[in-house]
Amino acid sequence: MNNNVINIVFISDDHYIMPTCVAITSIIMNKNKDTKYNIYILLAEVENENKNILENFAQNNNDSFVSIDIIIINDNKYKNIMNSGHVSSAALFKFDIANIFPNLDKVLYLDSDIIILKDLSELFTTDISNFYAGVIKDFIAIQLRKHHLRLGTEYYFNSGVLLLNTKKLREENASEKLLDYKLAQKKGFMDQDAFNYVFNEKVKFLPHKYNYMITNDNYFDRKAINDFYEYDLLDDDINILHITYKKPWDKNTISYNKYYDYFWHYYQYTNWFKNNPMDSFLTIVKQNNNEVTDNLNKEITKINEQINKIDTKISQIDDRINKLHNELVKINKEKSLLRKELSYNQNWIKLFGIYNDEHHIFVYFFGIKLTFKVNEKSINKIAWWIPIRKWRDNFRNKFKNI
Fold first, then answer.
1. What is the average pLDDT score of the chain?
2. 167 to each of 37, 118, 130, 157, 209, how far by Cα in Å?
3. Span 273-293, pLDDT tens digits
């Protein structure tokens, strides 16, 4: 096999004609001068207008180093299998790539929602002779979705970039195994579950620079992503950028992603941009405006949440103040009662009572205060007026040691 020839297969339909052309444009613009690319587009039955657009694109870009062939496929084979999300049943023709190209022993399959940023020679020459495919683990699917646990596999890879050992796949009838699994499992991803289950331990894991999925950045920082892949990747190192989930060309995409700039860069070299340059400009402006609005709404939501927390704290403080106020009112009432009681007792003592200090005895009798010096004579005189003997004795004993 000529190491300077790279065989690439895309699958496209009415919805992906434009992205497919943008992806191929990025390949052509970033290829090495001496690398030859044989690009095959498996095209499900499409409207004539889209077919003509794709044929004109292929004709305008074919040269001695780039060959673009369009192969019409009959999608009746898989049309009764329900689409999965944004993925149509045309994706199932990935199962047949090894048989559709019986003369090719190695093929690089690429989804249409990718942008190629470097020459693919290094990837394509990777040795996968003992494997079904070279693949890239799907970080989000493993870390957050746990799809590998659902399938009972050790890992889970993304099927948007597959370096296929088509020779080995033909030898082991892998296409039939993939289809059998898909027919038995009605749920799950359109083709990805089947590839993961059937290929399982027969894959070689490649660095994530060959399939950098932009949704990774929505959930994790770059360090966490690099730690997972055990590969220190910078943006400048990315070979294949995979625009997973929301698409920049989709009118329903309301927010902007920094990686969309790569798509719009290569889009401007296509006829879609040349024929209507304002369309992409307005789309970008709308996405940016929506992104700003969305971020503003998120910040407002955060502020409102903080205000609600503060209001809750204020309410709790008010409750505590009210409780303390009620306690204070209660204490003041008790204090008032004690004062009244104390005043009553003091008045009673002043009306009738006997008390003393170190040198004097004070006798109150109907409010009249009588003062006596503390000595035996005065003690006996006062005791004489106490009618009960026991009280008299207690009174005398009180002053014995004075």
1. 87
2. 19, 26, 11, 21, 25
3. 988 888 887 887 777 777 667
Task: Give, in order, the Cα–Cα distances in Å from 297 to each of 31, 100, 291, 301, 324.
Answer: 43, 50, 10, 6, 40
Q: Name the residue ranges covered by the structural domains of the chain.
A: 5-244, 357-398
What is the C-alpha separation between 70 and 152, in angstroms, rounded? Answer: 38
Q: What is the pLDDT of residue 348?
A: 53
Specify whether the CB–CB gap between 21 and 50 falls below 8 A: no
More confident residue, 124 or 394: 124
Long-range contact pairs involving 267-271 (C-beta distance under 8 Å, separation at least 24): 267/22, 267/25, 269/25, 269/29, 270/18, 270/21, 270/22, 270/25, 270/57, 271/53, 271/56, 271/57
> What CATH topology corresponds to 5-244?
Spore Coat Polysaccharide Biosynthesis Protein SpsA; Chain A (3.90.550)
Contacts of 105 (CB under 8 A, 6+ apart): 1, 165, 166, 167
Residue 346 has pLDDT above 60, yes or no: no
Q: What is the pTM of this model?
A: 0.72
